[in-house]
Design brief:
- The complex is a heterodimer of chains A (655) and B (162).
- Chain A is α+β, with helices and mostly antiparallel strands.
- Chain A has 29 helices and 20 strands.
- Chain A has three domains: 9-204, Aldehyde Ferredoxin Oxidoreductase,  A, domain 1; 234-422, Orthogonal Bundle (Aldehyde Ferredoxin Oxidoreductase Protein, subunit A, domain 2); 435-649, Orthogonal Bundle (Aldehyde Ferredoxin Oxidoreductase Protein, subunit A, domain 3), CATH 1.10.599.
- Chain A is 42% helix and 13% strand.
- In chain A, a hairpin with a 4-residue loop joins strand 1 and strand 2.
- In chain A, 60% of the residues are buried.
- Chain B has 162 residues and is α+β, with helices and mostly antiparallel strands.
- In chain B, 31% of the residues lie in helices and 21% in strands.
- Chain B has helices at 17-27, 62-66, 93-97, 123-127, 138-161, and strands at residues 3-7, 29-30, 38-41, 50-53, 72-74, 81-83, 103-106, 111-114, 133-137.
- In chain B, strand 5 (72-74) and strand 6 form a beta hairpin.
- The longest helix of chain B is centred in the C-terminal third of the chain and has 24 residues, at 138-161.
- Classes of the chains: A alpha+beta (655), B alpha+beta (162).
- Chains A and B meet through strand 13, helix 7 and strand 16 of A and helix 1, strand 2 and helix 4 of B.
């Protein structure tokens, strides 16, 4: 049998010793942890010192390219990065699309591991067997657009570029990298980690093919899936609107919290300022797709009139960014949103994270916790000027913006004065979805239990379907994705109801699977076109390994438990899985009345109910409900005996 | 009338699906460097920034004229110009001769490499759901282009008379 999918090598770059090494990929290990996200978990467990400070040379950057990445299969574009994030202190993955991962695989590597610290600014060039640490003296001080353009100028547009902006150089935590100016990667501070290593960028271009074990089988399945997309009646609308296709969901059906989780952005206002028609007419310049994705949802946006004419940005999930600029910062217009977006992307500030901190700071100012003494004489408001003022300070890592830019954990300490009471965060990271507006479904619940911090996507199942569906509608999805029959009685304990805490682990595992094999997109619009069997077929056609959904699910469960164990070893436990206090306060809205925290079916939930849900979640996961830590039995079931032994030795698992 | 592979660059999102399926079909691996069609990205790579390049199956093919071995000939049924890999000596003159970048050098097989229209049923067209690639008879393409021109003119007239 010809093994395909895996490139066969792992690349090690030691910036301190200026050494580059290549090692063959252990295929047995690859089968056990699939690749991509799974592989980075395994590397981090084996190689990363849990005590390493995120900024120290000892912290490492792990990149994983799964076996399906870079194949003809639809949406085979996901690659994963893992490190110890400075904003949260957790070890967690960030995933992205874009052309970088493919080029690393075409260069012959399934993983890239970087450690140490360069003596002077450098970038890493990967071109097949030729891997180089190059001088980045002229790139230092340049923003992401400039860095990318300069590297394309020097090496050619066929290279994919990961660039960090100016904020990363100054070790700003709420930052993110960009691949080819578009695809964001490493929320939680990848640029700051790179900054601490004097590492400005990565570039990659490869020409070795991704071997396919059974090309005919892959081609047949690809045709089958593409036909489903093609026959979808609203296909063209999905392509035209990109993530703006979800506008009604955001603006009307659900909504976005504003005023630091004390209000809901009014539907009429959203349509007046940010409607899809205006976007198509005045903002959208082009549609961009991740590799082999039939419904590209990334945007090239360009302001066509007014003061900011010509301002342009290439963005993943434009709608997600608009939401933040519109609701959290209330910048007031699409044009200003794009202007702010451009600044954030150039400097490398993370729009998701930093807008949440701005929102919080405005409330602190309104309450008198922050004064003009802290702000440098500026009155903080929810407006464009405040947003730009704080963003510019963040980029320079100075003043109040500089304090905020280090993320909730550090900013809470630096500001003090009881400010933590108004910070809506879990493990130092901002949530995205408000369960009082959306109700407590998978993504909302996952924000509490995700080891990374309040990062939503991993609890995705209920994101895939309209939230007014009857409970039973979720059963086929779970069955299709290999959830064991014995679990259904617990997930659906009575007709017309499901327990979200018991359903979420299977969604998390599914996302872990996709991120590991290098496929998929978290957006429901893509998943709706796939069946569990597709992934199985593609995996086997590409790699040559015959398997079953149960086996793949078991691998995903193994990966997720290892991901959890990585963070248990850092001291994370149940005490960190905390529902933000503000979610228990009623949400007064201008057009939807008063909203309270409810389950999917509209039954209000109090703290005790949420505590019970947490325990159900741990129980479903096979984790200790007192500590939130995987039990020895569960780890052994996942073939993670060595992990169990280690956690026991360190006293995290009771003997 | 032979059909031709018709490109609408303004619809290309740079997803590489055509390249992946082309190399999969012809070389049993996925590799956009060994694809007969190539997406040339500029800047960020939005629909206004990508140019798909592929052999145009010229009526008077410069590549075939340049080939001293006579290794490039037309399949009359599909209209595709094909490289006979047994005759090809790898001199790369065809690559030099083509002004459009339609012929490339297959660096593994060490011979000229170009689009063969997949025996009259191009895989890349099936993979491009964005409609940036179509396989059309020339009269139909003409009508389509005219229609698109008319639509543009209608928009201009609307602005003028508004």
């Amino acid at each position: 049998m010809k093994v395909g999918g895996y490139a066969g090598q792992v690349l090690f770059v030691d910036l301190t010793r200026e050494k580059i090494e290549k090692e063959p990929l252990d295929l047995d290990m690859a089968r056990k942890f699939l690749g991509g996200f799974g592989l980075t978990c395994k590397f981090a467990w084996d190689l990363l010192d849990p005590k390493a400070d995120p900024y120290s040379p000892g912290n490492m950057i792990f990149m994983g390219m799964g076996p399906m990445l870079g194949t003809a299969a639809p949406v085979s574009s996901k690659h994963s990065v893992m490190s110890k994030w400075p904003s949260t202190g957790s070890i967690a993955p960030g995933t992205t699309g874009g052309d970088f991962g493919i080029n690393v695989k075409l260069s012959g590597y399934d993983g890239v591991i970087v450690k140490g610290k360069a003596k002077r600014p450098v970038y890493i060039k990967i071109n097949g067997d030729d891997v180089e640490i190059c001088d980045a003296g002229d790139l230092w001080g340049k923003d992401t657009y400039e860095t990318t353009d300069m590297l394309w100028e020097k090496h050619g547009r066929n290279y994919a570029v990961i660039a960090m902006g100016t904020a990363g150089e100054r070790l700003v935590n709420t930052t993110i990298c960009f691949i080819d100016k578009i695809s964001s990667w490493g929320k939680g501070g990848l640029p700051a980690i790179m900054g601490s290593k004097n590492l400005k960028a990565f570039i990659a271009c490869g020409n070795k093919g991704v071997k396919i074990s059974d090309p005919k089988r892959l081609l047949e399945r690809t045709h089958m899936i593409l036909e489903r997309f093609e026959n979808y009646p609203d296909y063209q609308k999905l392509v035209d609107l990109g993530t703006m296709d979800g506008f009604a969901g955001w603006a009307d059906i659900h909504g976005m919290s504003m005023d630091n989780w004390r209000g809901r952005y009014p539907t009429a206002e959203a349509y007046r300022l940010y409607g899809p028609e205006y976007y198509l007419e005045n903002i959208k310049a082009g549609r961009i797709s991740d590799p082999t994705c039939p419904i590209g949802c990334k945007d090239h946006v360009k302001v066509k009139k007014g003061e900011y004419t010509g301002t342009e940005a290439w963005v993943s999930s434009f709608y997600g960014r608009v939401v933040h600029m519109a609701a959290r910062c209330q910048v007031g217009s699409y044009e200003k949103a794009v202007k702010a977006q451009e600044f954030f992307q150039r400097s490398g500030l993370c729009i998701h994270s930093y807008t949440a901190l701005i929102d919080w700071a405005v409330e602190l100012y309104e309450r008198g916790i922050l004064t003009k003494k802290d702000t440098g004489g500026v009155a903080l408001k929810h407006d464009f000027e405040t947003t730009m003022y704080l963003a510019e300070q963040a980029n320079k890592h100075e003043g109040l913006g500089g304090i905020l830019s280090q993320g909730f954990n550090k900013a809470i300490q630096d500001i003090g004065r009881g400010c933590e009471k108004y910070a809506v965060q879990v493990k130092g990271m901002e949530p995205l979805y408000d369960p009082r507006i959306n109700r407590l479904t998978g993504p909302e619940f996952n924000q509490v239990v995700n080891p990374r911090g309040a990062h939503a996507p991993q609890g995705c199942i209920t994101l895939y379907m309209s939230k007014d569906l009857p409970a039973e509608q979720y059963r086929p999805w779970l069955e299709d994705r290999g959830v064991p029959q014995e679990a259904f009685g617990r997930i659906f304990p009575r007709p017309g109801y499901f327990n979200i805490a018991r359903m979420t682990p299977y969604g998390e595992d599914w996302v872990a699977f996709m991120n590991s094999v290098g496929m998929g997109c978290l957006r429901g619009r893509v998943d709706n076109f796939f069946k569990g069997e597709d992934w199985l077929e593609i995996y086997s056609a590409v790699t040559g390994f015959e398997t079953s959904l149960a086996e793949l699910r078991q691998a995903s469960r193994r990966i997720y438990n290892l991901y959890k164990a990585l963070n248990v070893r850092l001291g994370f436990s149940k005490k960190d899985d905390v529902f933000p206090e503000r979610w228990f306060e009623p949400l007064e809205t201008t057009d939807r009345g008063t909203l309270v925290l409810c389950d999917y079916f509209g039954t209000p939930l109090n703290k005790k109910d949420c505590e019970k849900l947490l325990n159900d979640y741990y129980d479903e996961r096979g984790w200790d409900s007192e500590t939130g830590i995987p039990t020895e039995k569960t780890l052994k079931e996942c073939d993670l005996e060595d992990v169990a032994k280690d956690l026991k030795k360190r006293g995290f698992i009771k003997k | 009338m032979n059909k031709a592979l018709v490109i609408s660059p303004e619809k290309c999102t740079g997803c590489h699906a055509c390249e992946m399926i082309c190399s999969l079909t012809h070389d049993d691996e996925c590799n956009f460097n060994l694809s007969r069609i190539g997406i040339m990205k500029t800047s960020g790579g939005g629909t206004n920034e990508n140019i798909p390049t592929v052999c145009q199956q010229c009526r008077e093919p410069l590549c075939a004229d340049a080939c001293v071995m006579g290794a490039i000939s037309r399949n009359e049924e599909t209209g595709a110009l094909l490289v006979n890999e047994d005759l090809c000596v790898g001199c790369k003159t065809c690559v030099i001769a083509c002004p459009l970048g339609g012929v490339l050098y297959h660096y593994v097989k060490e011979c000229g490499m170009k689009c063969d229209l997949c025996d009259g049923d191009p895989e890349c067209v099936k993979a491009c759901l964005y409609g940036a690639l179509e396989f059309l008879p020339m009269d139909e393409w003409g009508r389509k282009k005219r229609l698109r021109g008319a639509e543009t003119l209608t928009r201009i007239l609307e602005i003028v008379y508004k």
